[in-house]
Amino acid sequence: MKRTTLFAAGVVALLTSLGLAFQAQSDGPYKVLKTAKVGGEGGTDYIFADPVGRRLYITRGATQAQLATDTRPEVPAFEKRLTIFDLDTLAPVGTIPGVGGNGATVCPNTGHGFTSDHPDLSMFDVKTMKLIKTIAVPAGFRADGIYCDTSDDRVYVGSHPTKSLMVVDAKDGAVLGNIDLGGTPEQTIADGKGTVYQVLQERPGGVAVIDAKTMKVKATFPFGENGGCNGLALDIKNQILFAACSAIGPAPPRGTPGQPPPAGPPSTPDPNAKPPQTFVVLSAKDGTILARLPLAGGSDGAVFNPATMEAFSTQGNGTMTIIKEKSPTKFEVEQNLKTWPSNGARTIAFDSRTGHLFAMASEAAPPPPSPPPGTPGGPGRGRAVPGSFTIIMVGMK
Q: How far is CA 223 from CA 192, 242, 278, 323, in A?
């Protein structure tokens, strides 16, 4: 057990609620309400909002110290940690050192939180913000997405390498079992009535339908030509799933390592081609496809707000797509909102009490020079600017 440490006062000073330096799309009901530049180093994946405890949880990875160069300042080493913020003000509340992973979740009924940590999962107390214990995982398991079904206080943790879900009792952290999915898990969602839905990342993709009691897959709903699906949201009342996918058709064959790309001019895009980034809308009862709507980019998360009958997807190009459910059979793109001026803000969290949505991103330095023509690989991406890590709050105007 490790003692919780509070954020340094200097981090608090970094907290800002700013008007953005770019203009978000105005033809829609949503806008960026607030940003908080909280700084800190280390990569992250998922963001989680606890509407009951009014806290926002973001895991940060460990980083090695970097010496200063002509283009960037010196960066000290950071250990992995779970950073915690006030859900309303975005002010930092505390941190749990030594706890990291791809994401976090909280089960409010038990007062316990969990992180998809590596190599083992972590369980913590939400009030004291202290680590309770670690939870061993099977061989080859590597935690990624994490979700708490509050109807039975079970935590579901996905693993890409083993294509499985680990099920954990949120009361004591006991491992209840592992579910073989037959596909690569991303976002998990449950209906609170004994059924868990797991989006699968393969091309083509689908949704695994899981019986929570038996911990067995009872059906898989295919998406047809859509794949690369990471986000999954659920309208419980009408039993409709929204799967955010980023690809069309089977995965292209891998090229020969070390060989240059094929010669010749680049192909001309087909103006009649279907958009690869798609919100697949389907029945949660039988998997019937109800609609396919375009996304503004490649998604890594989705949520649904039953109060407004809207589905939201965040994309890695710094956009958020909002879908309006006009009826159980009619859906339309309501808005494509620019949330970040460059690539980032690709995962999403939802506060059911206020209707606010959250994302996070860092500023990017200029990319490195492109490789010479004929060299394998494309242009690189710029490094994250030290200290630029920012939380983004989105809501109605």
A: 24, 11, 11, 18
